[in-house]
């Protein structure tokens, strides 16, 4: 389905919002109709996650992403409490701290700029996740970049190898990856699996030790999972059936990996794409900065008083996810019974049992019927109604109203009962980072000899458009092609 990013909505313009690919093995229905897409995501019992496509995510244990039915309800119930306003406040503060330090290191590069935006935003996102998710806080230039005692790889490198080779786990079980006759690349992956497993076991041990001593820090994802695991152990000790109660250690590790997968690479990519796009559209830097300054004048920079008012920062996130979202399609499968699917024109289609259903996210996000004739243009101001949107040359009004969209037309975090539980986490992190960076710096491309500003802008747009699916997420093919220079505001 990697073709979807390059194709956008073209194929659906030619043959319609739904089409079926018939093969000897299975039939696949591709959907780019908002009403039908919403129905698929809303009816979780009728359209389930195809096990064959999600099994590789169980490499460290079953988790929220891979389970179905009552098991999914248990996972959702036990992980949901960790995504609350206290967590959002912690994410806000840590993201601001990391962004400030990251920008400071970039500005020190001077006029030659930095080509490490993608790598550094990945480090930032991982540090925010380890702090808010697991209670581990690190300086931007240290932490997961350094090999911990008793390890041969850094936390970041072990996780990165596991994430970038996620498809490999569907072919080769992890227990085989340490065999000496395998190619060195696969043995390296096997080492990464062992290292990441060890890191998770150490985090779990520290959390349990803190809990036993009564010294647990701010509640986080890990502490919530540990409490759930302890419930399971207590139920077993009392002779109760525990399948609907807590987690096993393996399920804790599975969910840790799942939240790293969902909360690390995806958020980092979104921030990186947004920063490159902002550098290519300096008028939108001014548009966003005008709001940032207005909020700073009447706020102490705290989460509760700042985040809800930084709507233009959030619009930048939405617009970046619309065109360069990490996930370009969402797979589902009809259950063991036939299912009817109705599009926005009222036409009904009957899908036989077990039919694969691919929601074409990229096509939904670029449908001219929803997004107008400039659906392929990056324009964050489109997210506000005409009366409140403002343009990059207009002053911000006190009240801005987000547009109302048809259900199913914007689904970067999926939709319905299985909407991503980390949606608010990602939004808070993104807004905190962008507000910190643009509140202190202006970003622009480093021009080569003879290049004009327009040439530099085109080079940046070519860099983001030259993207492809790596493992399971969209990434730039050449993220170091154009350097960005960060200049402190006077």
Layout: helices, strands, pairs:
Blueprint lengths: L2 H5 L2 H6 L2 E5 L4 E5 L2 H9 L4 E2 L2 H4 L14 H11 L5 H23 L9 H18 L20 H10 L19 H30 L7 H17 L11 H32 L1 H16 L5 H4 L4 H14 L4 E6 L4 E4 L5 E4 L4 E5 H4 L3 H4 L51 H18 E5 L7 H13 L1 E4 L2 E4 L7 E5 L2
Parallel strand pairs: 2-7
Antiparallel strand pairs: 1-2, 3-4, 4-7, 5-6, 8-11, 9-10
Helix pairs in contact: 6-7, 6-17, 7-11, 8-9, 11-14, 11-17, 11-18, 12-14
Essential attributes:
two-stranded antiparallel ribbon, 18 helices, alpha+beta, globular, 490 residues, 11 strands
Mean pLDDT: 90
What's the helix count?
A: 18
Spell the H/E element sequence: HHEEHEHHHHHHHHHHHEEEEHHHEHEEE
Strand percentage lies at: 5-15%
Low-confidence parts, pLDDT < 50 over ≥5 residues? none
